[in-house]
């Protein structure tokens, strides 16, 4: 396996007890990384992910830093064991920040502070405004667009993410998303389920917070990634710091073009995908594509399986 890509998950992959096997059976990398993160946000992240409460972990400002820290911990452990470097990196939504940190484009501390604010501002959108995110299974992007465009009201519903050819996420005002999901059913959707998040991510509702995030992002140093990072909004790898920042700001209210990201990597002969995060959401998504070999690192057992498979014949002594 000479070519492989690392994928970093976004919000929704959190759960109480995540990474437990790493903490109890590996070295101090995980403890140290979570201690580092806790110091920057002035909150005990390790206690939160191990003990909960669940409602607190599901608050976006904590969810986002917890997932970022989990992904960075796993990546640091991969490097500690001298794992192979990927050809590409990409992250789904929030995961793009994890990818940029792991590719040495953004400092971990800067990313922590930024995504903590990002989560706070995204939550503020929902104050006194009911919102919803739903995954639509069984119809394509065109039909989902049609279902959303027929909603005639001042309420907002947007295509939040194109995860695969038949899995589309929509988000926005609760009533508009609900009506659009009914339209999706009429157009052939097989399943519709509500996502584990309290924010209308990647909808036009997020546009007002983009200016605040832009001001903070302009104070952060961004460097060319040492490993190419394919972004969500343009499906390109940027080396210019201003272009990277611009893509991150647009990402907050734009559709995540995940299917195109995966298609791009396949076009570049990357058919092995390694998910670096606390769950297996992106891995399960890829398993629908028979051309892709997918591995997860959500626990120590799966990490070691993936490590052996990807580094076979190269780091067998590790």
From TrEMBL:
Entry keyword set: Acyltransferase, Transferase
Pathway the protein acts in: Lipid metabolism; fatty acid biosynthesis
Protein name per UniProt: Malonyl CoA-acyl carrier protein transacylase
Domain Malonyl-CoA:ACP transacylase (MAT): 7-289
Cellular component terms (Gene Ontology): cytosol
GO biological process: fatty acid biosynthetic process
Alphabetized NCBIfam families for the sequence: fabD (TIGR00128)
A Pfam entry, by short name: Acyl_transf_1
Coiled-coil ranges per UniProt: none
The family this protein is said to belong to: Belongs to the fabD family.
Residue numbers annotated as active site: 93, 202
Highest taxon, organism lineage: Bacteria
UniProt entry tagged with the keyword Hydrolase: no
Top-tier EC class: transferase
InterPro entries on file: Ac_transferase_dom_sf (IPR001227), Acyl_transferase_dom (IPR014043), Acyl_Trfase/lysoPLipase (IPR016035), Mal-CoA-ACP_Trans/PKS_FabD (IPR050858), Malonyl_CoA-ACP_transAc (IPR024925), Malonyl_CoA-ACP_transAc_FabD (IPR004410), Malonyl_transacylase_ACP-bd (IPR016036)
EC number annotated for this UniProt entry: 2.3.1.39
């Amino acid at each position: 396996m000479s070519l492989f890509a690392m994928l970093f998950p976004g919000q929704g992959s959190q759960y109480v007890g995540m990474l437990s096997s790493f903490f109890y059976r590996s070295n101090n990398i995980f403890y140290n990384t979570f201690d580092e993160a806790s110091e920057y946000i002035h909150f005990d992240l390790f206690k939160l992910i191990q003990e909960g409460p669940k409602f607190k972990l599901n608050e976006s400002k904590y969810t986002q830093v917890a997932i970022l820290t989990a992904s960075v911990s796993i990546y640091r452990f991969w490097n500690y064991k001298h794992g192979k470097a990927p050809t590409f990196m990409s992250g789904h939504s929030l995961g793009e920040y994890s990818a940029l940190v792991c590719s040495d484009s953004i400092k971990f501390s800067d990313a922590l502070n930024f995504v903590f604010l990002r989560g706070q501002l995204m939550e503020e959108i929902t104050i006194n405004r009911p919102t919803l995110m739903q995954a639509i299974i069984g119809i394509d992007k065109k039909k989902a667009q049609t279902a959303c465009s027929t909603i005639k009201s001042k309420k907002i519903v947007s295509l939040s993410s194109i995860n695969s050819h038949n899995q589309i996420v929509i988000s926005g005002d609760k009533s508009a998303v609900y009506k659009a999901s009914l339209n999706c059913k009429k157009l052939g959707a097989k399943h519709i389920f509500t996502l584990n998040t309290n924010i209308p991510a990647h909808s036009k509702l997020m546009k007002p917070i983009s200016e605040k995030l832009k001001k903070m992002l302009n104070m952060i140093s961004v460097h060319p990634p040492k490993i190419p990072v394919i972004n969500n909004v343009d499906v390109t790898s940027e080396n210019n710091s201003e272009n990277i920042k611009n893509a991150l700001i647009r990402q907050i209210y734009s559709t995540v073009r995940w299917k195109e990201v995966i298609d791009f990597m396949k076009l570049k002969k990357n058919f092995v995908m390694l998910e670096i995060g606390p769950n297996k959401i992106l891995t399960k998504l890829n398993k629908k594509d028979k051309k892709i070999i997918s591995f997860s690192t959500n626990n120590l057992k799966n990490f070691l399986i993936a490590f052996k498979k990807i580094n076979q014949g190269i780091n067998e002594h590790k």
